Structure formats: structure tokens, C-alpha cells
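hiii, so i know i said id send this last week but things got crazy w the move. better late than never?? heres the sequnce for the chain we talked about at the cafe, plus the structure i predicted for it. fair warning i was half asleep when i ran it
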Amino acid sequence: MLNLETILEKCGEAKVEEIDVPAWGDKVYMRSMSGTSRDKLEEKWQSIEKGGSMAGLRAMLVGACLCDKNGVPHNPNAAQLVRIGQAPSDILDKLGEHARRLSGLGVEDLEEAEKN
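okay and structure toks below
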């Protein structure tokens, strides 16, 4: 059985993938979303369900999963998320699909979040 110290050490571990972005002529690294990032995304989703703006949702999803090749999250700030959101929508959609898959986040998860 794992003790608390070992569990805490494992909390930073994540699946990491290299994603080819031909339109940018390079690749990016993405990791599975942390629980804290997922909480923020679900909070945003709940806000949308209550009439809030969807602005920034894709950028928030992608930004939560961008990392370096070692899986260290980039953790973009608010201004950087705005810039990410200015990327072409087809690129954001592609990266968003990878973010959802890596994080085990599907449409049903978002629907569940809106119930809470």
C-alpha cells in the first residue's frame, strides 16, 4: 500500500505526447490535465451553462495541457491564454482533441460537470 509521501510524489506524473502541428511547422508537447486544471475547466463550463461566455474555453483546455518534453506544465497566464485563443480554430480543435483524450475528458464529463 502506498504511503502519503509516495502518493504525493506520483501526483506530478502525467502522460506526455508529442503532437505534430504542420501549420506551425513544428511540434508541441501535451500532458494529461491535472485535477486542479480540470476543476477550473469544469468551473468555466458551469459558468457557461448559467449564461456565461464561452470565450477562452478552447484556450483554457489547450493551455492546461501544454508542457515541455519532460511533462512540466507551461501554465500560461491569462494574457497568454488570450494569445493561445487567437490561434486558428482548426489548430485549437486538434490540440483540444488531444487534450481531452490525454485527460480522459469527454462530452459526458462536461455534461456531468454542469449537473454539479
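btw The CA atoms of residues 17 and 51 lie 34 Å apart. thought thatd interest u
miss u guys!!
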